Amino acid sequence: MQHPDRSETPAADEAVSPGFPGSGRRVLISGASRGLGRAVAEAFAANGDRVAVHYGSRRRDAEATVACLAGDGHVLLGADLADPRQTADLADAAAEALGGLDVLVNNAAVNTPHPPATTDYGDWCAAWRRHVDVNLLGTANLSHAAARHMITRGAGGRIVNIGSRGAFRGEPDHPAYGATKAAVHALGQSLAVALAPHGIAVTSVAPGFIDTERVTHRLTGPEGEAIRAQSPYGRVATPEEVAAAVLWLASPQAGWSAGAVLDLNGASHLRT
User: Fold this and answer.
1) Is 127 exposed, middle or buried (0-12, 13-18, 19+ CB in 10 A)?
2) Phi-psi region at 233: left, alpha or beta (left = phi > 0; alpha = psi -120 to 50)
3) Among 52, 97, 209, 233, which has the minimal tally of Cβ within 10 Å of its Cβ?
4) Cβ contact 233:216 at 8 Å
5) What's the angle, vertex CA 211, arms to CA 224 and CA 44, rounded to 5?
């Protein structure tokens, strides 16, 4: 893990409300090397916040993310979120580099296909282990580590989890992804109740398809038209649309949204 030079520490906020800042915050975004994570980092940086950009293996892409961010004071941090020790070290390094933590966005996730009817049992077990380790346990562990910093500082904070429409609609070729994202939604609601007394609001978003590098091959391939037709708008989301919702959920005005799971799928799946 890269530990950057310590940045100048801003003055601590005086109170949870209205003292929780609307800009100038210290923000850790996991899985921010490209795609949605990069768009979220850009949104916070444009808001005047300083961002710790985390990457798992795509260091070059993460460096490009940091280079494109508005403002200064942003940092680059690498860690394998399947490793609990590295995950805790990531939160510590972000807090040290930024002078504290105000916001955590849990965006990092793996999503590899493993259709049950055609996947070898060994590959099936490996896929589930990796999805649970990164998507669920990585999110839980990083949330715990970041919350400890927020609680110690005593000025509240925000945690926003990136879940998925697949938690509700089903993921037949990616069942471990759908299941772990459903667990992330449940985790976020439990944390929302547990951390509210400390002024920490925890929320989740549940996006549908987003036009990122990860799904470009599907959107430009034979199934692209059918994917876009899932929404009555006839398209999929842009990363910037989802990032705007994340930025709002992390704002002082969104504190009463604690525990919410916000659907962002262009009416492609309506929950009842």
Assistant:
1) buried
2) alpha
3) 233
4) no
5) 170
Kindly report the pTM of this predicted structure: 0.91
The torsion defined by the Cα of 235, 238, 241 and 246, in degrees rounded to 10, comes to 120
Vertex 110 angle, CA 104 and 111, to 5°: 130
- The residue assigned the tokens 């940086």 is 45
- Predicted local confidence at residue 260, as pLDDT: 98
Name the token pair of 8.
């100048």
Given a contact cutoff of 8 angstroms between Cβ atoms, the answer to whether 55 and 62 are in contact is: yes
Q: What pLDDT was estimated at residue 22? A: 84
Q: What is the spatial distance between Cα 219 and Cα 199, in angstroms, rounded to a whole number?
A: 41
Out of 3-12, 19-28, 203-212, which region has the weakest mean confidence (pLDDT)?
3-12
Q: Which residues are catalytic?
A: 177
Q: Which residues contact 36 (CB under 8 A, 6 or more apart)?
A: 107, 162, 207, 210, 212, 239, 242, 243
Yes or no: say if 49 and 105 are a contact pair by the CB < 8 Å rule.
no
- With 0-12 CB in 10 A as exposed, 13-18 as middle and 19+ as buried, what is 60? exposed
DSSP string, the chain: ---PPPPPPPPPPS-STTTS-SSS-EEEESS-SSHHHHHHHHHHHHTT-EEEEEESS-HHHHHHHHHH-SSS--EEEE--TTSHHHHHHHHHHHHHHHTS-SEEEE---------TTTS-HHHHHHHHHHHIIIIIIIHHHHHHHHHHHHHHHTS-EEEEEE--THHHH--TT-HHHHHHHHHHHHHHHHHHHHHGGGTEEEEEEEE--B-SGGGHHHHSSTTHHHHHHTSTTSS-B-HHHHHHHHHHHTSGGGGGGTT-EEEESTTSS---
